[in-house]
Specification:
With about 325 residues, this protein is of the alpha+beta class. It contains eight helices and 15 strands. It folds into two domains: about 180 residues, Trna Endonuclease, Chain: A, domain 1 (3-Layer(aba) Sandwich); about 130 residues, ph1033 like fold (Roll), CATH 3.10.590.
């Protein structure tokens, strides 16, 4: 719940809405979740989306994998829904729990068209996404299922039904959302599992930022030569997640961490396809002529921070604290000098 703090310790509750009250479709809620599953909602425990429902099919709204290869099944409800919604997701889970690896991979192939993972096996995409030392064996996928119902925080009938099945040992949980309208702007509140841990957006942070190698080999050289960090095309909005004083850790696909810089300016546009920030480099940088000669292994970042990252995105979540970013810059300088 959101409260306005008034005088004399008095709190005033802010009324909230559901997607149905906003005349939004359930598909709108599904796309909102799928598009932000990794970079925003599950910052501390990222998930890898592998499939969204198809029209007129008896399927849940969204399917994802965690690092262990477990299947996480999302059923989304934009307005009030009764206990039958829980029975519905149980039926979906019964079906999905019997999917073979080949069936999982077929769904992933369709979902990944037009993305970095197109033409990749699910095993390889999963390994790269979570930067695992070894690929999971196909038998390790979908051995367990986790059921998450996303719905309006006021949906007490559905919450009671989920609590009942949880008490019986079923791996099911409820993720509430609320929509607030404040001074003409819409705000979306979402409670991600397990503890809704998110970095304070107002604090300086470290950002593992992809150099766009999968789409353009020259992007890294343009960024270094123009002293900027850039995001392109459909994912150019990721530049909006970066702010002055943030520390950028440049992640170059297949090679490792190749440079670090501090953001020194606001977000800007360079044509319709590129958003960028000006930066000040904190490490030596490679040149186009000499190419990438030295890089720090991706695994070193996990070793320093003791965090698991979802690497298959422009921004690799979770974000780093300023202290963690400082340690990586120090270690990176030792690698590059």
């Amino acid at each position: 719940m959101l409260y306005k703090m008034c005088e004399n310790t008095r709190l005033e509750s802010i009324p909230y809405l559901s997607f149905s009250a906003l005349k939004k479709m359930e598909k709108d809620l599904e796309n909102l979740l799928a598009d932000n599953l990794l970079s925003v909602f599950f910052e501390g425990a990222p998930l890898m989306p592998i499939f969204q429902e198809r029209s007129y099919q008896n399927e849940a709204d969204l399917y994802a994998l965690n690092e262990a290869g477990d299947l996480v099944i999302f059923e989304l409800k934009r307005g009030q829904a009764g206990s039958d919604a829980v029975l519905q997701i149980l039926r979906y889970t019964q079906d999905a729990g019997q999917w073979t690896f080949a069936q999982l991979e077929t769904r992933f192939e369709k979902y990944s068209k037009g993305t970095d993972n197109e033409n990749k096996s699910l095993v390889l995409a999963h390994k790269e996404a979570f930067q695992l030392e070894h690929e999971l064996h196909t038998s390790q996928f979908n051995t367990n299922q986790h059921l998450w119902v996303v719905g309006n925080a006021a949906n007490t009938d559905m919450i009671n039904a989920i609590d009942y099945w949880k008490s019986k040992g079923l791996p099911i949980d409820f993720i509430p959302y609320r929509v607030f309208e404040i001074s003409g702007c819409m705000y979306f509140e979402f409670f991600s599992k397990p503890y809704d841990i998110h970095r304070n957006a107002g604090e300086r942070k470290g950002v593992l930022f992809d150099t766009n190698r999968s789409y353009d080999e020259n992007s890294i050289w343009e960024m270094f030569e123009k002293k900027r960090v850039s995001a392109y095309g459909k994912v150019s909005y990721f530049a909006d997640y970066v702010h002055p004083k943030d520390i950028i850790i440049y992640s170059h696909r297949y090679d490792g961490i190749v440079a670090a810089a501090e953001v020194i300016g606001p977000v800007k546009n360079d044509g319709p396809e590129e958003k960028y920030h000006d930066v000040r480099f904190l490490t030596p940088i490679p040149t186009r002529k000499e190419g990438i000669k030295k890089a720090m292994p991706f695994s070193k970042v996990s070793e320093i921070t003791r965090k698991t990252f979802f690497w298959a995105r422009t921004i690799k979540v979770p974000y780093l604290t300023a202290d963690e970013a400082g340690k990586i810059v120090k270690e990176l300088n030792a690698y590059l000098l």
